[in-house]
Amino acid sequence: MRKFFPVEDLARDSRFSKITIADRMADQRTALNVNVDADGPSKRTNNMRLTPSRRDASDGARGLMHGIFVGEIQALEGAGRTCWDFETGTEAPFALKLDMARQCWDEARHVEISVKLSDWMGSEIGQYAENTVLFEAACSSDPVLRLAGVNRALEGLAIDVFTTMKEFGDLAGDQYLEFCEDWMLADEVTHVKMGSDWLRKITENDPERRKKALEFQNVVDKLFSYGGTRSDSQESPIGLARRFRELAGFTDDEVEVIAEVSMQALNERKVAVGQIREAKRLADQSAHK
Ligand SMILES: [Fe+2]
Ligand SMILES: [Fe+2]
Known about the structure:
Layout: H1 21-26, H2 57-85, H3 94-120, H4 133-137, H5 143-172, H6 175-202, H7 207-223, H8 242-247, H9 252-287
Helix pairs in contact: 2-3, 2-5, 3-6, 5-6, 5-7
This protein binds fe (ii) ion (2 copies).
The site of one fe (ii) ion has 6 residues, from helix 2, helix 3 and helix 6.
């Protein structure tokens, strides 16, 4: 079997369409774009958190669930590749591979749960497109970088997303959604913890490699802070799950860095949106003269 599988060759049937993150965020049905007026232009509020009270809550929650579903497939593919791509003992310890095998088992279960939840929520496979950044982060030639980028950055984001969706289920009185998210959240905390533990263990005497891995994690974190989607602010659709991140092995300082990067992305997006709105207002004004 071939090692280091390219993203273009991932097995997908005709229901799946691949797009970029920017295109995914431009999908009008998404609840993750902070440009969108969640309650209609006339009732724009500063609360953009994805809750059932949002006017676009149904489509938004369905789109997010589909995003979780394709993310679960890629997490399964990435962890599976890490079991296979590296030589046991020399390139990756056996115990690390055992953790990755356990993760495959969990992610396969999450794929099934996500398909069933999507059906329960009234959508189907392929209703939204897929971006494959998660698997791309799992293509690094260093297993430590994979664990930093996938397990710590992306599955760290999964902790934030599942926490928000669990609260969504709770507020909506949907116990199936709430319990499923809670169970998946518990697994994701374990996966992030695996990433934190292996990163520290393998790079214990190799500060240069640790630095590189943390830099890679920061790049992925920044990429997924795109447009201020996730932050402590209610203006972000997804919250930052500080307590669960702590349980997953993030230090207080590390959580603060993510909080700052996220807030910075949100503020940059607000400035950009403000400029677009102002330009539109001026254009409308001159059209009416
Ligand atoms: Fe998962
Ligand atoms: Fe996971």
